Amino acid sequence: MGRQPKYENPEEIISSFYQSISESYNAPGEGEQGRDGKKKQELLAEEFGISRIKVRKILITTGDMRYSETAQIQKLLAESQKMSVVAEKMNLSISTINSLLPYSKGVYGLDVSAAADRTAIYRARKAALVVLKDDPSSVNLWRAVCFFDGYPFTTSGRGSAPGALFKYCVSAPGGAGGRRYRLGC
Q1: 110 contact partners, CB below 8 Å, separation of at least 6
Q2: Which of 10, 164, 171, 175 holds its CA 20 to 30 A away from the CA of 155?
């Protein structure tokens, strides 16, 4: 008897993961905006635990980012031209061409359970902020603080200097009522 798969519909989980990245990109928090008013790709990569290149390809796949080269590459590939020919015509490397195309088979090396966990954390953080906004009690504040453990924040910076990236960790209570702190997340 074979093992039961942990997730019945992995395509739906990956789609939800893509949607979470898209939502986070289009609704940045205070200080998370890039020049275009969207969340910076570096912060998205930190938030979801994937590379910046994967973030960019997911945003291309969801239609949130568009490059003029993408349409041209897709047109040439649709004409049954080889990738090397397209690279030569466009004077780009094959890796650059691949980075400008949407995913067709999904994110390489992305574990379905990791995507599900990252999506769940994103949704929980979002919900905690909604609850906190409706009822700013200390319990709801503490809940939000706990949900944002390990989240990549950026300080406001000073003058023209950019802010610094930081994360915090909420420590577990120590034994016998004492406190215990850990370094790093």
Answers
A1: 14, 17, 50, 54
A2: 171
Range list of H helices, the chain = 10-26, 41-48, 52-62, 68-78, 83-90, 94-99, 112-134, 138-147
Kindly list the domain boundaries of the chain, sorted by start residue: 10-63+102-177
Can you tell me whether residue 85 is helix, strand or coil? Answer: helix
Mean pLDDT for the chain?
Answer: 83
Distance, CA of 145 to CA of 40 (rounded, Å): 22
Query: pLDDT per residue over 75-87, tens digit each?
Result: 888 887 788 888 8
Q: What is the pTM of this model?
A: 0.76
Instruction: Specify the DSSP class assigned to residue 175.
Output: G
Q: By percentage, how much of the chain surpasses pLDDT 70?
A: 88
